[in-house]
Design goal:
The chain is of the alpha+beta class and about 60 residues long. The chain has a single domain, classed as Double Stranded RNA Binding Domain. It has a three-stranded antiparallel beta sheet, covered by helices on one side. The radius of gyration is 12 Å and the shape is elongated.
Length: about 60
């Protein structure tokens, strides 16, 4: 499945925060690239868990 989402990245102290909209999933890293990579993994795990829990259709409906 392909899912497009917007990523916002900002710096807090020495770390960068990456946030996936409209999924409301976030992660962080020491550089913008590492924060984005960590976010990609977090989104993948979020969607995997939603699928396993049987809530993926509802999650996708909520973001549209």
């Amino acid at each position: 499945m392909k899912l497009g989402y917007t990523v916002q990245i900002w710096q807090e102290g020495e770390h960068y925060i990456a946030h996936a909209l409209p999924l409301d999933v976030a992660s962080s890293g020491p550089t913008p690239a590492k924060a984005r990579a960590a976010l990609k993994e977090a989104v993948h795990l979020f969607l995997k868990i939603a699928r396993e829990a049987g809530t993926l259709k509802q999650v996708l409906a909520d973001i549209r």
